[in-house]
Amino acid sequence: MLTIMSLALVGAMLSSIPSQAQAAGSGVVSHAFVPVVGFFNPAGNELLEVEVITTHAGFWLMYNAYDFGGGFSAGGSGLIPTSSVIVPGASVNAGNVMVKLNVDTCDLTGFTTSYGPCGTIDVTWVELPASVGGSYATRGDTVQTFPGGGKMETNGQTETFSALATGTELGFDLPTATIGELSNKRTLP
């Protein structure tokens, strides 16, 4: 099974997980977990992608689903309710960070369905310890510019761990042992 390990982030956007911090008086996210998964099914005829980004306005969801054999495709992005994402307290690099996403995009006012139908996305990511799934870290400044004028600036540290992902996207099941990523992003002083 081919696993897509990173997806493009969607513009300078969003923050507000209750257990995550935001710099006082700013739109800067000082700490966030960013779960992402993208994969082909074992037959190679379905491609699914899900990513949740923490922004100063809340959570931003981006998804795509392609069934090359069945002619189905769907995609969308937008803000989702904070209650759609659960991050129980955990310690990074201990193999116990979990992020749960459960949302029906059909119920969200203002959510953009770019093509195809809206629907339920129910995915759970569970971090694998670095000794099992590997990890990598980056530190420094990054500026990413998007079509239409959006821009994301990052000053900080990102630790990325493999994560076991389970669940469904628009009725498509994630195959057993699907590996995604869980990034721990922190702003540096």
Q: Looking at the structure, what is the overall shape? A: globular
Largest sheet, in brief, is:
13 strands, antiparallel
Question: Number of folding domains?
Answer: 1
C-alpha termini separation:
40 Å
Total E-strand runs: 13
The arrangement of helices and strands along the chain is EEEEEEEEEHEEEE
Beta-sheet strand percentage?
Answer: over 45%
Structure description:
By secondary structure, the chain is mainly β. The protein has one domain. 2% of the residues lie in helices and 55% in strands. The protein has one helix at 130-133, and strands spanning 3-4, 31-40, 46-55, 58-67, 72-80, 85-86, 98-104, 112-115, 120-127, 135-145, 151-169, 172-173, 178-187. Strands 1, 2, 3, 4, 5, 6, 7, 8, 9, 10, 11, 12 and 13 form a 13-stranded antiparallel sheet that branches. The longest helix has 4 residues, at 130-133. The protein starts with a strand and ends with a strand.
Short description:
The chain is globular, with a radius of gyration of 16 Å.
What key phrases describe this protein's structure?
189 residues; 2% helix; 1 helix; 13-stranded antiparallel β-sheet; mainly beta; disordered N terminus
Q: How would you summarize the topology of this molecule?
A:
Layout: E1 3-4, E2 31-40, E3 46-55, E4 58-67, E5 72-80, E6 85-86, E7 98-104, E8 112-115, E9 120-127, H1 130-133, E10 135-145, E11 151-169, E12 172-173, E13 178-187
Antiparallel strand pairs: 1-2, 2-3, 2-13, 3-4, 4-5, 5-8, 6-7, 7-9, 9-11, 10-11, 11-12, 11-13
